[in-house]
């Protein structure tokens, strides 16, 4: 089974999301989602989280906690919560099409505007569910 570590990254009642590249061969192409990725061989979910966040937005994760795990017949998603302690303009997006700090209302609506795409894009289904669970 594939295992991934993903993060609910928050700052001042807003949540940092990644707009995934619009490549048909990836999971949730052109959808908003949480930052994170696959565990490498021998890696714990916590180690993967720290590595993935550094790789994707050049952010050093220090303080985080486990939120939950979500499992289906293909993937186990280890979900963590962590604060964003810098301004978004201090991050460097290295993976994905766009990123943004979004409100809880944006998350509830399930569609978020991307300045780079110049249009509304949907939240990926499982990421939407995870975020709604977190907000409730």
UniProtKB/TrEMBL annotation:
<dbReference type="GO" id="GO:0044716">
    <property type="term" value="F:8-oxo-GDP phosphatase activity"/>
</dbReference>
<keyword id="KW-0378">Hydrolase</keyword>
<dbReference type="GO" id="GO:0044715">
    <property type="term" value="F:8-oxo-dGDP phosphatase activity"/>
</dbReference>
<keyword id="KW-0479">Metal-binding</keyword>
<dbReference type="GO" id="GO:0035539">
    <property type="term" value="F:8-oxo-7,8-dihydrodeoxyguanosine triphosphate pyrophosphatase activity"/>
</dbReference>
<dbReference type="InterPro" id="IPR000086">
    <property type="entry name" value="NUDIX_hydrolase_dom"/>
</dbReference>
<dbReference type="GO" id="GO:0006281">
    <property type="term" value="P:DNA repair"/>
</dbReference>
<dbReference type="GO" id="GO:0046872">
    <property type="term" value="F:metal ion binding"/>
</dbReference>
<dbReference type="InterPro" id="IPR015797">
    <property type="entry name" value="NUDIX_hydrolase-like_dom_sf"/>
</dbReference>
<comment type="similarity">
    <text>Belongs to the Nudix hydrolase family.</text>
</comment>
<keyword id="KW-0234">DNA repair</keyword>
<dbReference type="InterPro" id="IPR020476">
    <property type="entry name" value="Nudix_hydrolase"/>
</dbReference>
<dbReference type="Pfam" id="PF00293">
    <property type="entry name" value="NUDIX"/>
</dbReference>
<keyword id="KW-0460">Magnesium</keyword>
<keyword id="KW-0227">DNA damage</keyword>
<dbReference type="GO" id="GO:0006260">
    <property type="term" value="P:DNA replication"/>
</dbReference>
<keyword id="KW-0235">DNA replication</keyword>
<feature type="domain" description="Nudix hydrolase">
    <location>
        <begin position="1"/>
        <end position="125"/>
    </location>
</feature>
<keyword id="KW-0515">Mutator protein</keyword>
<dbReference type="InterPro" id="IPR020084">
    <property type="entry name" value="NUDIX_hydrolase_CS"/>
</dbReference>
<protein>
    <recommendedName>
        <fullName>8-oxo-dGTP diphosphatase</fullName>
        <ecNumber>3.6.1.55</ecNumber>
    </recommendedName>
</protein>
<dbReference type="GO" id="GO:0008413">
    <property type="term" value="F:8-oxo-7,8-dihydroguanosine triphosphate pyrophosphatase activity"/>
</dbReference>
<dbReference type="InterPro" id="IPR047127">
    <property type="entry name" value="MutT-like"/>
</dbReference>
């Amino acid at each position: 089974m594939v295992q991934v570590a993903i993060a609910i990254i928050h700052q001042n009642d807003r949540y940092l999301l990644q707009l995934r590249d619009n490549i048909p061969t990836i999971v949730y192409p052109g959808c908003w989602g949480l930052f994170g990725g696959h565990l490498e061989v021998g890696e714990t979910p916590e180690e993967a989280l720290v590595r993935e966040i550094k790789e994707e937005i050049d952010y050093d994760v220090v303080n985080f906690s486990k939120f939950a795990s979500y499992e289906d017949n293909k993937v186990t998603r280890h979900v963590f919560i962590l604060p964003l302690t810098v301004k978004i303009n201090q991050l460097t997006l290295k993976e994905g099409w766009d990123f943004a700090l979004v409100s809880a209302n944006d998350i509830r609506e399930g569609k978020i505007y991307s300045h780079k795409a110049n249009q509304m894009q949907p939240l990926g289904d499982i990421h939407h569910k995870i975020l709604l669970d977190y907000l409730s």
